[in-house]
């Protein structure tokens, strides 16, 4: 964990790393290949995130219905 006093310095270091990486890509990467790789990565990531979100929603709905059924049973 980063100590709060060092956050600014760490953020600046990461900013410099990101700038160097972007500069490297602009000078050395094939733009079409990089775009294709980025598209594939985003597509796969969104599929995983969508599946994870759907699972979370299903769990929440299950818990709500179980709670409603249990509450309804107590009111009988």
Short description:
The chain is mainly α. The chain is 87% helix and 0% strand.
Can you offer a commentary on this structure?
The chain is mainly alpha-helical and 76 residues long. Helices cover 87% and strands 0% of the residues.
Could you tell me the radius of gyration in angstroms? 23 Å
Identify low-pLDDT runs: none
Put simply, the count of helices is 2
Strand content of the residues, in percent? under 5%
Features:
76 residues, mainly alpha, 2 helices, elongated
How is the topology of this model organized?
Layout: H1 7-28, H2 31-74
């Amino acid at each position: 964990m980063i100590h709060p006093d060092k956050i600014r310095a760490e953020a600046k270091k990461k900013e410099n790393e990101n700038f160097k990486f972007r500069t490297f890509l602009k000078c050395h990467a094939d733009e079409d290949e990089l775009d294709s790789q980025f598209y594939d990565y985003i597509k796969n990531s969104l599929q995983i995130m969508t599946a994870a979100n759907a699972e979370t929603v299903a769990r929440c709905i299950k818990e709500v219905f179980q709670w409603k059924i249990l509450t309804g049973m107590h009111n009988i």
